[in-house]
Design brief:
This protein is α/β, with parallel strands linked by helices. It contains 10 helices and 12 strands. The protein has helices spanning 46-57, 77-86, 101-111, 125-132, 137-148, 170-180, 206-216, 280-284, 289-301, 321-324; strands spanning 13-17, 63-67, 91-96, 115-119, 156-161, 183-188, 219-222, 231-235, 241-245, 258-261, 266-268, 277-278. α1 packs across α9 (289-301), α2 runs parallel beside α3 (101-111) and α3 (101-111) packs parallel to α5. Bound molecules: S-adenosylmethionine.
Amino acid sequence: MQLADKFGRPITDLRVSVTDRCNFRCFYCRSANPENHMPSAHLLEWDEYERLVRILAGMGIRKVRVTGGEPLVRPGVEDFIVRLKALGVQDVSMTTNGYLLAERCDRLLAAGMDRINISLDSLDRHKFERITRTKTFDQVIAGIDAAQSSRLRPVKVNAVLVRGINDSEVEAFAEFARDRDLIMRFIEFMPLDADRAWTRDMVVTGAEVYNRIAARWPLVPVAHERSETARKYRFADGRGEIGLISPVSQPFCGFCSRIRLTADGKLRTCLFSKEDHDLKPFLRGGATDHEIAGEIVSIVAEKEKGHGINEPGFVPPSRTMVSIGG
Ligand code: SAM
């Protein structure tokens, strides 16, 4: 069977958060307090994740992105990737801040990981330190180097642009993509920050990024699947690519194929869902796979038509990005 919602959108992609802990404290995501994470006892066990993914793979989930928090801080994540591939998941990817990547890249590859996205919000060491509230710039660049020298190609690097913080670096990021022949993706800042500081004028739109880059280097559109989050362009005169992820200025909900599983076992049908659905009582209460599948079908049927950021009366979800899984 193919899981679908009541609007007929096929659901093929799962984001799995394996922890809400993170070794960074990016100001647009987490609060400054390093201790604001759930007790370990609330987290799903690897066997529970595996069971849910097995059920979901039987319902048409083809892509699984392992995320968090920072997925590389949870011991055992490589073994989890081995299990995902053994379940027949076609595309297993990870989003990471890159801090531990240089030392872990080989193991992730040996486990069967297919793709990777690395977050990097500034090419200026001092600004990077202010954004992440860590001194880890060299390690992240080493992580990107490790990914680029592996078979993981093309490597995607994600930057969240925030007006007045790093929007001056759009062209520098484009040069970074060209120099290194990688995909540089620009993500609009969304109202999912723990400090609730988001305002619309802090958002740097995909259109602005496109115009600024295209003014320097001619861009050529690259074909993309309808459900993909990024509008992609390559440089007409050379290497590298950019991706524009514009959930605020150009929502792409109409073709959304994603659901999310939080580290504490809640199924979310949208980043901005007002409620999430606890699967832990089913997992731990003796439900059969068939019963869990039935529950998932009814949850997914009610997937939101859109995220509603631009609707009057929009209220951000109570969970922030780090506790949902980006
Ligand atoms: N720790 C990993 C990392 O840094 O990539 C994975 C988790 S992180 C929550 C996933 C992605 O969400 C990152 O690219 C991060 O920049 C992005 N993100 C976090 N808060 C965001 C926000 N308020 N708006 C847009 N993107 C955000």
